[in-house]
């Protein structure tokens, strides 16, 4: 597979989500982040950007969307309405990104418009599940203590994600923390998601200040 995944916000010195560039037949940016100059980083790797796919529209995921749209005029795929949205996506849709096609899985709880993207080899999980963060290592979940969020709905979303996660998925790219590659660990992507689910099901505050 010729496709590569580039973390274009790797050099950010302020809070941002992870924004990932998929190279290949359909150059795609998953989320835009908040790092000034993110469009220049994308341009270092590709002359064209076919589309931006948003996992959700929290400010740390769409802060530089204007910049990216101005630079590349891509189609913008999103679950919820947005001034830049050109394509609405729903649960069960399939979206071409890079050299693969990804199933859209509606995964609210952290955000009402949250989706995850699942191919035969990769999971882009946004903030519904992350590998590591300030709360847990080896399987954590998005916070659910703010307005519009729901721990119960997030738990349901994690279960739905597991039902639709092929065993062939070996890499997980989350909105925060490190990417996870099963080849570098004893766990599988499924193990990580199941661990996040078990922790969410404890229904304890994720952070002490909650």
User: For the residues shown, what is the average pLDDT?
Assistant: 96
Topology as H/E string?
EEEHEHHEEEEEEEEHEEH
What would CATH call the architecture?
A: 4-Layer Sandwich
Strand order of the largest sheet: 1-2-3-4-5-6
CATH topology, by name, is: Metallo-beta-lactamase, Chain A
Number of helices: 5
CATH class: Alpha Beta
Cα-to-Cα separation, first versus last residue: 43 Å
Please state the CA-atom Rg, rounded to the nearest Å: 16 Å
Strand content: 15-25%
Instruction: Determine the CATH superfamily.
Output: Ribonuclease Z/Hydroxyacylglutathione hydrolase-like
Instruction: List segments where confidence is low: pLDDT < 50 over at least 5 consecutive residues.
Output: none
Number of domains: 1
Shape: globular
Class per helix and strand makeup: alpha/beta
Estimate percent helicity.
Answer: 10-25%
Keywords: Hydrolase, Metal-binding, Zinc
Pfam families: Lactamase_B (PF00753)
Cofactor: Zn(2+)
GO molecular function, one term: hydrolase activity
Key attributes of the depicted protein:
six-stranded mixed β-sheet, alpha/beta, 210 residues, Metallo-beta-lactamase, Chain A, globular, 5 helices, single chain
């Amino acid at each position: 597979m010729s496709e590569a995944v580039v973390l274009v916000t790797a050099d950010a010195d302020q809070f941002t989500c992870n924004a990932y560039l998929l190279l290949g037949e359909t150059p795609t940016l998953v989320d835009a982040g908040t790092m000034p100059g993110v469009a220049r980083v994308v341009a270092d790797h590709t002359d064209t950007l076919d589309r931006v796919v948003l996992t959700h529209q929290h400010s740390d995921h769409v802060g530089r969307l204007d910049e990216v749209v101005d630079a590349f005029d891509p189609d913008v795929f999103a679950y919820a309405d947005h001034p830049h949205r050109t394509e609405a996506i729903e649960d069960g849709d399939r979206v071409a990104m890079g050299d693969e096609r990804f199933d859209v899985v509606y995964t609210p709880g952290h955000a009402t418009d949250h989706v995850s993207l699942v191919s035969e080899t990769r999971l882009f999980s946004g903030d519904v599940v992350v590998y590591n963060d300030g709360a847990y290592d080896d399987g954590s979940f998005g916070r659910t203590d703010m307005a519009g969020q729901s721990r119960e709905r997030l738990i349901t979303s994690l279960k739905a994600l597991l039902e639709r996660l092929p065993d062939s998925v070996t890499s997980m790219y989350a909105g925060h923390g490190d990417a996870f590659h099963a080849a570098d660990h004893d766990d599988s992507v499924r193990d990580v998601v199941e661990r996040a689910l078990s922790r969410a099901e404890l229904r304890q505050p994720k952070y002490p200040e909650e």
